[in-house]
Structures are given as structure tokens and as C-alpha cells.
Design a protein that fits this description.
Low-confidence stretches: 1-32
Structural class: alpha/beta
Mean pLDDT: 84
CATH topology of the largest domain: Rossmann fold
CATH class of the largest domain: Alpha Beta
Strand content: 15-25%
Largest sheet: 8 strands, mixed
Distance between the termini: 51 Å
Number of helices: 16
CATH architecture of the largest domain: 3-Layer(aba) Sandwich
CATH superfamily of the largest domain: P-loop containing nucleotide triphosphate hydrolases
Oligomer: single chain
Shape: globular
Number of strands: 17
Length: 446
Amino acid sequence: MLKKFFKKKESPVVTPETAPELKPAADSKPAKTKPKTSKPRTAKKPKITWDINQYVVEPKEGKKRFHDLNLPIELMQGIAELGYQYCSPIQAQVLPYTLDGYDAIGKAQTGTGKTAAFLITVITDLLRKPIEDSRYVGEPRALVIAPTRELVQQIGEDAKNLCKYTGLRVVTLIGGVDYEKQQKQLDAGVVDIVVATPGRLMDFHERNKIYLDMVEIMVIDEADRMLDMGFIPQVKRIISHTPKKSFRQTLLFSATFTQDILNLSERWTHEPVRIEIEPDNVAADTVEQVVYIVSADEKFSILKKIIAGDTVESVIIFANRRDETRRLYEKLQKAGFKVGILSGDVPQQKRSRTLELFKQGDLKVLVATDVAGRGIHIDGISHVVNYTLPEDPEDYVHRIGRTGRAGATGMSVSFACEDDAFLLPSIEELLGRKLNAVLPPASLLD
């Protein structure tokens, strides 16, 4: 569904004739005096030797190619290297508008391609409006904020891959990582795109190490999770330091459109296009789901047998609390499994190293909380185990979405015991169908 979202009740369909005027260029915004310690520098643009004819993608009925979007050649080279061919539904709907400068609010689940949608918009905007004059260190042109460290790192990695041939610099700012190292990254040269968690970004801003008054395009990802985690006051402060909404382009994405989210979007965006992607199935068809009815005492024994199974290549095990993940991690270690842990009480450097080892296959098992697991986007994860059922049904969808990615099939196993079986009906209501709840097979009970 695609409609224009006005502050008034009328919501006519967006057409080129009714679309709002494009946002003014960055040079129309008033400049802010920076401390003398911030030396002006200019970015170097790489020489283009690649030709789009080197990347052939045949037209396909009902599909929009990235070739059809008239993207900058430097960006298309990165897209070609990543193997992107056809737009996902949200990309196909939102990009024709955001590439023309319109604000947007998008409702889409994880795994729908929204990250690439807003990054392609950001990169295209910056390349189409180059700044020839000297710029100051710590003065980004684009800002992306997301609720979790892992998600910020994933977005940053995707941005760097897409920017590989553009000359644009991407810096990520997250808590739990050495402040001085991140400061050195900012000081190394002009930064074009900053991807950050709200807390660390405010830390840099309050120390006058980063300036937000020249932000041309702002992205707020997973706004619903930001709301749940209590980050909205920080986000409001961040946005208050950027140019007025009529002088910047703002993109907001959320898995749900609650009234609170709609109120925030009205406050932060200027006559946005509204995109809602409702998947045919909330959970991917590529994920087989089963619920084992067990006692609390049986869960760990069954879990060990599942992990040791021949079909399990890599598995993420989710628990609701940090102390649960810690106990589970220690018990699996003692049982001889190569296991890592991702939770809020693990230092960020260790979390990053653990995730890298898991990606490389050096760790077969990962135990995680919902917050830490939200930013895990790794192809090839064969199994997800819900050791405890999530209290929020949306978290169930996000958990099982870690497997069955990129066209592969996956398996989700959930344990329902006397402590949390009452959570099943709300999950089934969200899914729109009954889950296959059975007793574990005899092979797992022996």
C-alpha cells in the first residue's frame, strides 16, 4: 500500500503531479562556526573505470532492476559486486520516491531489504550533490541511527560495501568500544555517513566531537524497537540538533505502525510518502517451525541432542534474559560445544569477535538475547532454537528470521514448558495460524 501521509486527514495517492517540492540542497542551510581544532579537509573521489555494461541483468516482468533506477555509476559498481539484481517489494515501492528527495515512513519486517533501500537513497543523494568546498572533520552529511550495536555494525558494513567505489567515508559509533579509537576514525578525514546508536552519538555530540547541523539526510531505523528500549528521548535530542525537517530528508522505518510511531513520524518528517509492506506470511515460508511441549527439566538435555544432530550446521539459541543466556552458555561449554554468547553484559569488542567467529564457522552455536540478536544478518544459519518463548510475539518473528535467509531453508524449534506455554496464543495470533505443538520425538528423549 502506497499513499501520501499528511498531517491533515486527507490522504490522496502520491503522483508526480501532487508530490511535494524537492528539499533544498545542503548549501542553502546556514553554516555553523566550528572550533579551530577542526581543520577543514576535502574528500578524494576515485577514478571511474567500470562500465555498467559489465553487469548484465535481464529485464523480468513484474520486477524492477537496480539498472532501472538511474543510480550513480560508482554505486552501481558496488551493487554489481554484491550481486543485487532485482528490487525487493519495499525497495521497488520506496526508491522511486526517496531518490527524488521525498521523506518516507516505511513499515517492513527485518529481511525485507529496507537497509539497502535507505542506504541506496543516502549514497545517491550525497553523490548527486557533491560539496566542492572544504569541509570540517566530524561533520557528517548523512546520519543513520539504530537501536542496537549489532544492527549499527551490520548497517555500517553494508554501507561500506555499497560505498566501496564512491569515495564516501562511513564511520560507525557504538558504545562498548574504545572511545579514542572511534575519535581517531572521525579525525582521519571528512566523514559522509555516520551510523550510530543514540547513546554513543550523543556522547560525541556533547563533547563537541561531532556536529549535526549539516545533516542532509536522516534515517531512523527500527523506530518501534527504539521506542521499546526507551531511546526516544535521546532520539528527540539528536534530531533537535539537525536542520529543520523541511531542510533535510528523513526516512523512518518500523516493523509496526502504532499510534506512538505515527505521532513521532508526523513530528520528524515533512509530508512523507508512506509505504506498508505486509508479507503474505509474517514468518518466512522457508522456515519450518515446530514447538516441543516439554518440562523445564527436560529442555537442556533435548537441546544438546538437537545441536549434535547431523542436519545442524549452525544454530542460534535465544533466551529472554542475560542471566539465562550466561547459564546456558556455560553449560554448553562444559558439554563440549564450540559456543559463543551475545548479550548486553558482554563487552562490545568480544561480541564483535564472537559474531565474526560465528560467521566464519569457527563457532557452531551462538546463545543470544533478543536485543543482541536483532542485528544478526548471516546467511547459512540452519537452525534457531527458542529456549524460552519471547514475551513479545514480534520477537518470535525476528528470532526465526535469522534462519531461512537468501532462499535457503531453515528450522525453528521452540520449547514450551509450564513457565511460558501461555505465550503461544499471542504468537499464533500474530502468525495467523496454529503452530505445530507436539511432544519431542523419542530420539530426543532417550
